[in-house]
Amino acid sequence: MKTFKILILTGICIGFGVFVTFHWISFKAKGLTYDDIDTIPKNNVGLVLGASKWAPSGSINLFYKHRVDAAVALYKAGKIDYILVSGDNGRKDYDEPTDFKNDLVANGIPAEHIFLDYAGFRTLDSIVRAKKIFGQNAITIISQKFHNERAIYIAQHNDIDAVAYNAKDVYKTPPREYLARTKARLDLLFDIKPKFLGDKIAIK
């Protein structure tokens, strides 16, 4: 019985920690995510966070589609001059950055204004590499709001002046975001580094 009570108490403490972390990250990002394209500040580079183009059903992934639409809208509104797409290219048959580039070009974005980061395996990698590899100390992050808040939190920790443009959401915050934010907090606490760094790439 004593062991059971300890397990219950431990579960409650963990759940409380996850809950507090989730809302703390939202608080830290308050006022830095934008739905209105007219009011978002201009930055040289917009960072699109990766996503698979295709949903498990075989239809287009709406998270992906709305991020493409948001990046195109920002560029055409003159709110960014270049687009950096950061995503997973860890398998031979899977290439998020190139999928994004192809669809951005199809929507009228000049190819020479699109840069690809093939080592954006997760949000922390994408944010840190935007600074350490691509030399960006100020960026506009492009994703859904729940994701943008977490990305801004990571950017703040890495001394990056970040705002975010909220792509259209597909549904309310996915349950996994609670765990993703807790992991982000632990990653920063233990100073976890990106999987790869490498040579610097100038965006110009």
Question: Explain this structure to me?
Answer:
The chain has 204 residues and is α/β, with parallel strands linked by helices. It has a single domain (2-189), classed as 3-Layer(aba) Sandwich (Rossmann fold), CATH 3.40.50. The chain is 44% helix and 17% strand. The chain has helices spanning 2-28, 62-76, 96-106, 123-132, 145-157, 176-189, and strands spanning 33-34, 43-49, 80-86, 114-117, 138-144, 161-167. The protein has a six-stranded parallel β-sheet with strand order 1-6-5-2-3-4, with helices on both faces. Strand 2, helix 2 (62-76) and strand 3 form a beta-alpha-beta unit. Helix 4 crosses helix 5 and helix 5 (145-157) runs parallel beside helix 6. The longest helix is centred in the first third of the chain and has 27 residues, at 2-28. The radius of gyration is 18 Å and the shape is globular. The mean pLDDT is 93. One of its GO terms (cellular component) is plasma membrane. Keywords: Membrane, Transmembrane, Transmembrane helix. It comes from Winogradskyella sediminis. Pfam families: DUF218. This is SanA protein.
Topology:
Elements: H1 2-28, E1 33-34, E2 43-49, H2 62-76, E3 80-86, H3 96-106, E4 114-117, H4 123-132, E5 138-144, H5 145-157, E6 161-167, H6 176-189
Parallel strand pairs: 1-6, 2-3, 2-5, 3-4, 5-6
Keywords for this entry:
single chain; 204 residues; alpha/beta; Rossmann fold; six-stranded parallel beta sheet; 6 strands; 44% helix; globular; transmembrane; DUF218; membrane; transmembrane helix
